[in-house]
Amino acid sequence: MRTALFTHAACLSHDPGSMHPESPARLRAVLGALEAEEFALLDRREAPRADIADIARVHSRSYIERVLASIPPSDAEPDDWYRALDGDTVVSPGSGEAALRAAGAAVAAVDAVMAGEVRNAFCAVRPPGHHAEADHAMGFCLFNNVAIAAEHVRAVHGLARIAVMDFDVHHGNGTQHMFESDGGLFYASTHQMPLYPGTGAIQERGVGNIINVPLSPMAGSAAFREAITHRILPALEKFNPEFLIISAGFDAHAADPLAALQLTAEDFFWVTASLTDLARRLCSSRVISCLEGGYDLEALGLSAAAHVRALMVG
Known about the structure:
two-stranded antiparallel sheet, eight-stranded parallel β-sheet, alpha/beta, Arginase, Chain A, 15% strand, globular, 10 strands
């Protein structure tokens, strides 16, 4: 069975401004890397729009309406082209469609895996999602794509235990807050600390369903792999998920300008292979992943390619 790639041209139309690190060039770098011959067998699919009902399982209706109402019209004047939802989350005329397609990719990826059409899937989308809270935008994120996917698995496909593994260099505060009081959901994260958003301490345990392994700046590959091997994988084994979702951020790479965790593309291949091996044993290889961060374009392309290479092997 193949690995699916879900994306949509609308995700390139989300423009937060020429100096903003979360730029359309990020997605171009990922998609460009996945044009290599080794990825010829990817099952390439167009991301649909998410239904509002899908998004409303994790975000309040009033928040969804506020976000979509904040999007400037396509004929907006230059001085109204950009609108800030928080200090670093900016929308422009293409942002609403991009966000709906990003969430829709995650939902469609779940459906494709559950239908047995593909073994696993990567959603190459933007804006990212793991900082988005139930009622406010944050950290470049509008809708929490992985949380939307997790609740879709439960509501539509009837599975009970859903896990998210987040290896973005920034802690996924939004996902953690949406999961922390629900024992059927599991969230694990490796991330640099101290660093934005300031959450993700070891003591943040939810109802026993949250595992945070903060890593010091310059920690490097050995510390990351030790955290995955000795903390994350055993906790996932104990939770015994029926579906695994990956928040695939690549900003822990040594070249990334926004952090200093010093990982390599090979680390992203290794962690993805470790997770797909676990999924093969525990949940019939049911895995999807969604693009989160990664801001050095060359490193992002190499790291995303390594991640997808491991998904295809898995």
